[in-house]
Amino acid sequence: MSATISLAGKIALVTGGGRGIGRAITEALAEAGATVVIASRKLDKLEAAAAEMSHLKGKVVPMACHVGRKEDLHRVVRDTETTLGPIDILVNNSATNIGQGPALDTTDEMLLKMVEVNVLAAFRLVNLVVPGMIARKTGGSIINIASISGLKPQPGGLLYSFTKAGLLMMTRSWAREFGPAGVRVNAICPGLIQTDFSEYYWKDQSRSKELAGDQPLPHLGQPREIGHAALYLASDEASFVTGHTMVIDGGATA
Ligand SMILES: NC(=O)c1ccc[n+]([C@@H]2O[C@H](COP(=O)([O-])OP(=O)(O)OC[C@H]3O[C@@H](n4cnc5c(N)ncnc54)[C@H](OP(=O)(O)O)[C@@H]3O)[C@@H](O)[C@H]2O)c1
Known about the structure:
7-stranded parallel sheet
């Protein structure tokens, strides 16, 4: 049995793959030999990130994409599949978090925006990518980055928790339906991870201590601690794993 995971010859699409958790996932997949398309809004930042990852075994290819725009998602999937080949691994990682605060202050517009970026984008990408996986009979791996806030309401996070809970239920529903065709669908629920996204929670030392200090593993989570989990789920080593929610939170929800 080989102890090293290889994704040589595989094509992956990671939304938001240029920084934070998405970047760590990209590094893990590309280090294992996959060609990884990183897609988000800021092409210059993606190009810089791809250049920094050029030493990895697999190629990292930047593509501009606002995941809330249907036409962008179509273009990225089409360009990936025509220039690099069919997508084997899809990581729905990009997310936004507007409307943090009291539930009664949130608006229709905020809810629709949150759904568009955090749920509809994943729904659309799955609909674009999975039919090809099924038709080719080559299998595939979908990984949805949710959150522990989708398991338990985040204080002041009505919309964030709602969208992540929705993504978790879609994960399990997709897993049931696509499993017989060899397409696995799993979710990762990170706890507090040190990225730009969660800066509010960790930049202030006392707030960070209050949150992470109570965890059985009391350190602030790092993006690479999610990257390696995604590598496992993406690989054939996880061939019996689908519909699973992998909680990686230092034991915060234990
Ligand atoms: N950090 C945490 O503590 C934590 C905890 C639980 C779950 N998560 C989840 O982990 C995932 C990654 O978060 P992170 O912490 O790594 O955040 P991050 O470092 O802020 O990265 C967010 C990524 O999403 C992209 N993005 C945002 N809006 C986008 C849009 N409209 N279209 C395309 N891409 C967009 C950003 O790229 P551009 O700016 O270039 O578009 C960026 O690459 C998210 O799903 C988040 O909900 C994070």
